[in-house]
Amino acid sequence: MEFNSWSFVLFFPIVCLIYWGIKAQRARNIFLLIASYYFYMNWDARYGLLLLGNTLISYLASIGLEHVQDHSRRKWLVSGSVFLNLSLIAFFKYANFGVETVNWVMATLGIGINIPLPNILLPVGVSFYVFQSVGYIVDVYRRDIKAEKDFINYALFVSFFPQLVAGPIERSSNMLPQFRRQHKFDDDAAISGFKLMLWGYFMKLALADRCAVYVQSVFDTPSADGYSSIIGTILFPFQIYGDFAGYSFIAIGAARIMGFHLKDNFNHPLFAVTVSDFWRRWHISLSTWFRDYVYFPLGGSRCKKWRIYFNLFVTFLASGLWHGATWTYVAWGGAHGIALGIERALGWHKKQFKAVEKWMHIAFTFVFVAMARLIYRAGTLGLVHAHLVRMADPANFTIANKITQMAMIFIAIIIVIAKDAVEEWWPKDKLAGSTPRPIWKDVAIITGMLLLLSIMASPEGGTFVYFQF
Question: What angle do CA 229, 321, 231 make, to 5 degrees?
Fold first, then answer.
């Protein structure tokens, strides 16, 4: 069930009404757990078994880690449980990639063996909830948190439907205490959550889906001209931003209506001044996950310079593989690892830029991010080369029959940039004011957002891009 489907438009209000109609929080949690599994199994009923298996592995492992005191046995237990969880991703996400790689090596060596692809279907959101479970197990092993004894609470932590299939990747220290508390309905939180959901729908339907139509027409057309390749490359970052940030805003807003607080996942990445700054603002829950569970265990920044660069490179290679099981994703991750190493060598990762220099770096960062995304959007390194050749010698661009489409995209981009700019440079308390907002203002804002969404929404809706991760 996708957020941009009529099924969800019906499902979510019903869940909220029943949830708030139940008095006891534990009964609410049981209901939310059932609703979350129903939400997930709408894609495929078998996915529920996979989710349950992941939940049982991490739950039992955490209970074991709580009781076992011997360091060696605890180490084996955490290693085994993490391995089992990551094996789920490895099997479903990388089996085809592994077979394709073996076949390529065989062909290169002239060995006439071609292993048939297993054609395993990737379960929606498996990387997200597996990473959430792995983070929980490691935190229990480090004794940063205590193991959750209540299976219902833990199972809901893993499967909570707003953030189940595309994040944010939550930490147990934030979510588990919320499942233990008795929640009371809050008018302000509900209105705030609804407005956040509407903004998420605008980013998805008005920005991402409209950009997607143009971007797909460019990258799926081998004969596309150079100017079209340039515009498609520029629009793709806006498509990804609208798509993924839109999902995150809908998830955070939906959770807020039910009384839960999910952590922010985006912080105006279009205004990042360096690639390092971009990753502090983009998919924050994933970048901090890799920081805490990959980069720091490798040694982080508390080692020799060459080792710091190595740690950065390995971390972003792992991030590239997480995003997709192709060599283009590996190249994309490696490019970011190299960029962060160069920035650290130049001292840009902690430099404060001023005035014109800052805007130059914002533009440079956007160009780098756009060109890096070209690597995995093109699909193959050969197609990346083809697009680069076209962009180097652009010709024959025509905007005929695309004026309305491009105008809508331009307006959506301006609206998103303007909102991000206001939030980036204006203090939140100044925007909010010192007195409570009258209800008529909220009604006016919501009405305006609904009207804008009805005008700007693309008639050609698509699935959320990060579902494939």
Answer: 10
Give the integer Cα–Cα distance in Å for 158 and 227: 45
Query: Over the stretch 56-112, which tens digit does the pLDDT of each residue have?
Result: 999 999 999 988 888 889 999 999 999 998 888 888 777 777 777 777 677 777 776
Residue 459, SS3 per DSSP: coil
All residues at 6 or more sequence positions from 203 whose CB lies less than 8 Å from its CB, including other chains: 241, 242, 243, 245, 246, 249, 416
Neighbours of 239 (CB within 10 A): 25
H or E element in which residue 412 lies: helix 403-425
Q: Which residues have a Cβ under 8 Å from the Cβ of 363 and sit 6 or more positions away?
A: none
| Cβ-proximal residues to 194 (8 Å cutoff; 6+ apart), any chain | 253, 257, 446
Q: Taking residues 373-400, report their average pLDDT.
A: 73
In terms of phi and psi (left: phi > 0; alpha: psi -120 to 50; beta: otherwise), the region of 307 is: alpha
Taking alpha carbons only, the member of 5, 16, 2, 37 closest to residue 260 is 16
How much is the pLDDT for 395? Answer: 63
In Å, how far are 201, 229, 253, 259 from 40, measured between CA atoms? 20, 37, 19, 21
Domain chopping of the chain, boundaries: 6-183, 188-273+353-468
Q: What is the DSSP letter of 42?
A: T
Residues designated as active site: 323
What lies within 8 Å, CB to CB, of 420 at 6+ separation is: 268, 270, 271
Mean pLDDT computed over 126-137: 91
pLDDT band at 138 (very low <50, low <70, confident <90, very high): very high
- The pLDDT value recorded for residue 435 is 53
Q: Distance from first CA to last CA of the chain, Å, rounded?
A: 16
Tell me the two tokens of residue 91. Answer: 């099997």
